[in-house]
Amino acid sequence: MRVAQARSSTEFLRRTNSILILRALRERGALSHTDIISETGLASATVSAITAELTHAGIIEQSEQHTPGARGRPRVLLQPAQGCGYLVAIAISSDAVQFSLADYSGRLLDRFYESRNQTIKATAPFVSLLRTSLERICERSQITDRQILAISISSKGIVDSARPVLLWSPIFGDGQIDFADVFAQYDNASIILKNETALVAGALGTRLPLGQLGLAVVSLGHNIGLGLVRAVDGETQTLAPNFSHMLHLPNGARCRCGANGCVEAYAGFYAILRTAFEVPKDHIPAQFVPLSEIDRIADSARRGDRMAGFAFRQAGVALGQGLSRLLSLHGRMPIAITGPGTRYYELMRDGLESGLAETHVVRMHGVPEITLVEGEAELVFEGHKASALERIDEHILGK
Ligand SMILES: [Zn+2]
Question: What's the pTM?
């Protein structure tokens, strides 16, 4: 028993140290033996043993660096091996799907977009689009199915916490997609599915100042997304509660999810359009509203149009009240706002702050810090890379 325990803890330590070294090589590029020691804080003998093992397994490789004019032996550098494995990130949004290919060092190698017909709710045409796009990625970069070690997918909506199954989404409604089935032919790959805003929260979470316990990320667009990062016992947890379809007003406006009075039925782009044009609240004016249309409503609001101004303010109130409930349950934490809707923030701000102010936690401690964060798409990709590379490390070291 004791021998088995000692063996398993040695094994655990070896894995943890290997992961530290792989991460350092990915983040810093090629490193010498001495660089790895200073980056990881590991002992020289440990670094030697692990890098020898990883080199033997073909996961990392050596190169020599000659310094012009310098005497003596060239510096030996270590780096992730070319072609040892790849990850594919698939970001699904209302009107398009973005496919990205990256290598094991996280470097972007290829990217393309496929537009989607927004009126098609059936999942079958979408599944075949995904499969042919994956084949296209492999073909364009001349890689085999077996070299793909992770396929990481993101979508708005509700994802199963244990399996890569999309349970409900604004695009397909109740039409569920099991991505393990979709990509069954890539039998060397881990299939990962995450809520899009949870990925953004995960990426922003790595930049949190030390000691900050949490962050709520709200994404404003056609849909409303929410991701939450919390530090629990030194571990970072990322959650995606069903914020957008939380009740805002009983017997309220019709929502795309089929319920009435959801936060999104007041704060999503279609809701802003509905209020601005005084469309009856039991009617959904459009499944997808182009950004240019919301820009026009925002311009009217800025010029003093009463209904347009009210539409944005009402969106702000729904978000503020929703966030006040979130803070009451999870404690006060800073809020980051991202997505295409950030450009209308000044029109929603008063409403949002007044919605927040109605709660005890905010009355006690004041309005939390609110920051606008640009570059949502890049943060989504960063989140994909972080979770996929972590899985690839586990996969490689588990062999
Ligand atoms: Zn809803």
Answer: 0.86
